[in-house]
Amino acid sequence: MAGISSEVSLVGTGLKLFAILLVSLVAGTTFGIWQGYDPAGLPPEAFMLMHQGAVRGLNLLLPATAAVAIGLTILLAIRARRNRPVLTAYALAILLMIVAGLITRLANQPINAEVMTWSAGAIPAGWEALRDSWWQWHVTRTIITIVAEIVLVLAVLFDRRY
């Protein structure tokens, strides 16, 4: 019986660690972009090149990472269903991650898709409005993702079932 309990403990601990790791990667990436990539002062072609490079590298990776993190957190919530405060914290973390994902899908990715059609010398007039909208949505999802990470870590700390 102790062997089964140990295996369950290792599975639960692994789920918790992996969920935190994945949310941390998403939050860290979006935070890094927020702090190191403010496009406000960039000329149009520099913005386009930087943005297109970021989209090529992150447009699939980041949402996929977040989706797996949400899935793992759902598993943790199911495992904690008898502990109402912990379940609530997991549910809040899931909700926040979903909101950040919806911002990505409905606000940032359509702008990404449009920027990916641009070429040097063919950047549309009024491009700054798209840049600024993308940036505002990015900052919003970054803050939400960081709060989701904090809530997830708190849920894990209070989830005494290892």
The coarse overall form would be elongated
Radius of gyration: 19 Å
How much of the sequence lies in strands comes to under 5%
Query: How many domain units?
Result: 1
Structural class call reads mainly alpha
Largest pleated sheet:
none
Number of strands: 0
Order of helices and strands: HHHHH
Helical residue percent band: over 70%
Poorly predicted regions are: none
The tally of helices reads 5
Report on the structure:
82% of the residues lie in helices and 0% in strands. It has five helices and no strands. It is mainly alpha-helical. The radius of gyration is 19 Å and the shape is elongated. It has helices spanning 2-36, 44-58, 61-79, 84-115, 127-158. Helix 1 (2-36) runs antiparallel to helix 3 (61-79), helix 1 (2-36) runs antiparallel to helix 5 and helix 4 runs antiparallel to helix 5 (127-158). The mean pLDDT is 93. It has one domain. It starts with a helix and ends with a helix.
List the helices and strands and how they pair.
Layout: H1 2-36, H2 44-58, H3 61-79, H4 84-115, H5 127-158
Question: How do you describe this structure in short?
Answer:
This protein is mostly helical.
Give keywords.
162 residues, mainly alpha, elongated
